[in-house]
Amino acid sequence: MNTLLKVAVLLSLGGTGYSWQYPRNADQTLWAWRSCQKEHIGDDQALLKKWLKFEIPDDKVTHCFIKCTWIHLGMYDEKTKTIRVDKVKQQFEGRKLPVPAEISKLEGPTDGDCEKIYRKTRAFLDAQMKNYRIAFYGTYDGSDAWFAEHPETKPKNTKISEFCKGREGGKEGTCKHACSMYYYLLVDEDNLVIPFRKLPGISESDLKQCRDAASKKSGCQVADTIYDCLNKINPTGLKTALNTLDEQSLTNY
């Protein structure tokens, strides 16, 4: 992506700094659910079992889990605080599913509050959960079939560190962290930083500093810059965080 195009993308996204391609694929939707589960579940294994069955009880933790999943699926515009209904429609169409009439329930502002987003989207999810799961690869059959058709993607139950051996150069072949930074979701498929990604044990201020530095680069250098910046600021914290995420990449949630 050349500099002028990159600037245009940033402006079109209202300054969010990332550019996702739609419809989202099974690897990307699995990451969204897995990340939000781990971010919000704490030690409540009973609640986790419900989430894994796509049950969404009316409680404060689940409210924020639902907000998180809409964001991580790329279906929520944090600038306008609205569900990106056009992208939800595109996801259904991309999976050759009829666009449900209930999609109109997703329209309108939410003010960004977890509970309001939950209430805004609950009726749609209740009515369309079966097709929602198909649309976003939330079934084992659909997800497994996609991964089988895309061997170039990191398989399930495989560590990021193992998969990325020999793949860190990126498309340019000159970088050192292109593959792993993508799978740790610090950069997206267009080599733009992801502004809402959290790393365990790394402060938001450090992440922002390194995102800002990386955003001035292009291509696979974005990945290398964010890695090098975090490694310079907090090498022990970065190593621990990436080791944690690497171990978690073995799991299906």
Question: What would you say this structure looks like, in words?
Answer:
- With 253 residues, the chain is mainly α.
- It has two domains: 126 residues, Pheromone/general odorant binding protein domain (Recoverin, domain 1, Orthogonal Bundle), CATH 1.10.238.20; 94 residues, no CATH class.
- It is 54% helix and 2% strand.
- The protein contains twelve helices and two strands, in the order ααααββαααααααα.
- The chain has a two-stranded antiparallel ribbon with strand order 1-2.
- β1 and β2 form a beta hairpin.
- α11 packs across α12.
- The longest helix is centred in the middle third of the chain and has 22 residues.
- It is globular, with a radius of gyration of 18 Å.
- The two termini are 32 Å apart.
- The relative contact order is 0.13.
- The N terminus is likely disordered.
Uncertain segments are 1-17
Q: Give the beta-strand count.
A: 2
Q: What is the H-and-E element order?
A: HHHHEEHHHHHHHH
Biggest sheet, spatial arrangement of strands: 1-2
* The level-1 CATH class of the largest domain: Mainly Alpha
Q: What is the third-level CATH name, the topology of the largest domain?
A: Recoverin, domain 1
How much of the residues is beta strand, in percent? under 5%
Mean pLDDT: 91
Q: Characterize the overall form.
A: globular
Distance between the termini: 32 Å
- Sheet with the most strands? 2 strands, antiparallel
Total separate domains? 2
CATH architecture of the largest domain: Orthogonal Bundle
Overall SS class: mainly alpha
